[in-house]
Amino acid sequence: MISANVDIVPAPFVPRMVKYLRKLLMSKKMRVTAFVQNSTNRILAVQAQEDFVDFLFSLLTIPLGKAEFILHGDTGLGSVDNLYRCIPSLNVRKSINTENHSINSLLNPTIPRNYVSVTQILPLAQKSSHMLLSKYDDFRGRHQRNLEMTDSRDMDHYELKGLKPNAYMVTDDLVVMTSSANYGVSKLQATGIPLHDIETHVLDIGMEEALNILKASLTSSFALTNGLKQSLRRRKTRKMKCSSGGETCFE
Questions:
Q1: 93-144 pLDDT tens trace
Q2: What is the distance between the alpha carbons of residues 181 and 174, in angstroms, rounded to a whole number?
Q3: Helix, strand or coil for residue 205?
Q4: Position 168 in a domain
Q5: Cβ(159)–Cβ(54) under 8 Å?
Q6: DSSP reduced 3-state for 6
Q7: Where are the alpha helices (DSSP H) in the chain?
Q8: 207 Cβ partners below 8 Å, 6+ apart?
Q9: Could you tell me if 36 and 73 lie in one domain?
Q10: For residue 75, what are the domain limits?
Q11: Residue 203: alpha-carbon gap to chain centroid
Q12: Which secondary structure element, helix H or strand E, spans residue 200, and what is its range?
């Protein structure tokens, strides 16, 4: 990890690094199998691997201000959106403790260290480590050095370690459960929807879809249906072209 106090990276290189990291995030993909009710276009559930479930749980670590930042002040939380948008136009410094806060901490707060998933697909920044200046004397004279302060919580990761089933089942309203193929079918049958009305579609989830799921999860009980509807529409269109022979398709 590069310390903020050490000028190792040349200044002209920083924008290129930021651009590279954003491109890297944009290229990351998670793959799920969606069970879709054909008559309503509703995603009943998805079967997913650990990376997608880890991403969903990581949504709980995002401060509200950070959600506003990455969704450009358009979370769908009406009054909160208005509150966020008015900050730049007001002299907020007079109404907050500037020693402990800054305008940026309201507009773009960071996340505590090690609370960002290693599989994170959203552009989230972690807090830098706390540094303590230590001074001491020995036979050679007086010295000082920087010590990194570590929160004991840094040792705790919410990532799904040790529990690795073949897959997880995630419902439209983001209820997560471990599953197997047979278990997934039985849960779908329990909905009372005829199996002939249920289609499966393989969907790739990148940053665009992740942002849509975040927004939908804040305002809706149909987080997957609303968050993945554009991806599903594209997938169905492509599937129709494949079946009509107009396009060569590969999974």
A1: 555 554 455 677 888 888 877 777 777 788 887 766 555 555 556 666 665 6
A2: 19
A3: strand
A4: yes
A5: yes
A6: coil
A7: 13-27, 50-58, 64-70, 78-86, 103-107, 181-189, 207-219, 223-227, 229-243
A8: 25, 26, 28, 121, 122, 123
A9: no
A10: 63-110
A11: 17
A12: strand 198-205
